[in-house]
Specification:
Blueprint lengths: L1 E2 L20 H10 L4 H4 L13 E7 L3 H9 L1 H7 L4 E7 L2 H9 L5 E5 H9 L5 E5 L7 E6 L14 E4 L4 H11 L9 E4 L3 H9 L5 E5 L2 H8 L2 E6 L8 E5 L1 H6 L1 H20 L1 H12 L3 H9 L10 H16 L28
Parallel strand pairs: 1-3, 2-3, 2-4, 7-8, 7-9
Antiparallel strand pairs: 4-11, 5-11, 6-9, 6-10
Helix pairs in contact: 3-11, 3-12, 4-11, 5-6, 6-14, 9-13, 11-12, 12-13
């Protein structure tokens, strides 16, 4: 497994290398993506034999389930090898670190997640959304110790709540509190930098509530005496995305299409073979198969073309973080979504 390591610690205000990237990069890509004969070619296999790239550099994390499965299956390598293209995978500790590599020109394609991509856009990282993934709201939860006096969201007032600042869990917490007339100003926010930190803090009673995510949530359910106050259902989409650099997407839209179709095939297989998929993931994640199978049952893997509702959903996250002053400027998510991408395929998930 190839790895790229950052040369500086990850901090919220320095999540991404700040480059002066003109929005004209994106607008040029969007206008060039249209194809007059797209409808006739929609059901045809993409022609990637003309001037193919020598190398495709793909970023992923331990949380990029569908990417991990595709990498293990090696079907993408087999397909692109036919045209002389090599696939190189780079694993990162977090999505923000992968997006730093995109910003630095070290990746062509990557997995992404809703909140991190909002920060990336706000900080001028050059990328385009190539697809979305199904929501995973049940993979997020607000948990307490089993003997805690906290039983409802309203009980959070004045309590110490641990969560990752700027993460999907942050957005989840904001929306959950909003549902009972509270804000983050009504709680004592405790910054959590990783699952192990949060679990240790909950066990030691240094926090009252922990905003947790799968597969660590599934593990906590099995190994700890906890109660779930609410999961993310109805509060946060917890949606993954795929992205590419504008230059790669413009030059090789057919290759992007192949990557997405292979990801979809990997997702279809995993959805139908959850136990076997968990067995593949177990040594990669260092977690037991039963825990990972719980995680698999709480999600559907797949690739979805970007649409108006998904863009609206992502815009809501951006607006919330702007209101919280976590991003310095208002952004428009639609500016990063090509209007007529050539890589959209009828084989992708319709959810």
């Amino acid at each position: 497994m190839s790895r790229i390591h950052p040369s500086h610690p990850l901090q919220l205000e320095r999540r991404f290398f700040l480059l002066s990237v003109s929005s004209l990069i994106a607008s040029t890509l969007f206008s060039s993506c249209a194809s007059s004969n797209q409808s006739q070619q929609a059901n045809q296999a993409p022609d990637i034999t003309t001037n193919p790239p020598k190398l495709v550099r793909i970023g992923l994390t331990k949380g990029s389930t569908i990417f991990l499965i595709l990498k293990a299956q090696k079907t993408l390598e087999e397909r692109l090898k036919q045209i002389g293209t090599q696939v190189q995978w780079f694993e990162f500790q977090t999505i923000p670190l992968a997006l730093e590599a995109v910003n630095a020109g070290s990746l062509d394609f990557s997995s992404g997640v809703d909140t991190s991509m909002v920060f990336a856009q706000a900080n001028g990282v050059p990328f385009v959304y190539t697809s979305a993934m199904p929501q995973r709201p049940k993979g997020l939860a607000l948990i307490v110790n089993d003997d805690s006096p906290i039983h409802t969201l309203a009980d959070f007032k004045g309590k110490k709540v641990g969560y990752g600042i700027g993460w999907s869990l942050h957005y989840f917490l904001v929306k959950a509190l909003e549902s009972v007339g509270l804000t983050v100003d009504d709680i004592q926010s405790v910054k959590i930098t990783g699952a192990a930190d949060g679990i240790a803090a909950l066990k030691s009673r240094s926090i009252d509530v922990f905003a947790i995510w799968d597969p660590f949530y599934a593990s906590a359910e099995k190994t700890m005496k906890i109660r779930t106050i609410v999961d993310g259902q109805g509060f946060a989409p917890n949606r993954g995305y795929t992205l590419a650099t504008p230059s790669f997407a413009k030059a090789y839209p057919e290759v992007v299409k192949v990557i997405l179709e292979k990801l979809q095939a990997a997702g279809d297989w995993a959805n139908q073979n959850q136990r076997q998929a968990s067995e593949i993931l177990s040594p990669l994640l260092g977690m037991d198969v039963d825990t990972l199978e719980i995680t698999m049952k709480r999600q559907t893997l797949g690739i979805i073309p970007m649409g108006e509702q998904i863009i609206k959903e992502q815009q809501e996250i951006a607006d919330v973080f702007f209101h919280l002053k976590l991003i310095s400027k208002q952004i428009r998510v639609e500016e990063m979504v090509p209007s007529t991408p050539q890589w959209v395929s009828n084989s992708l998930t319709k959810i």
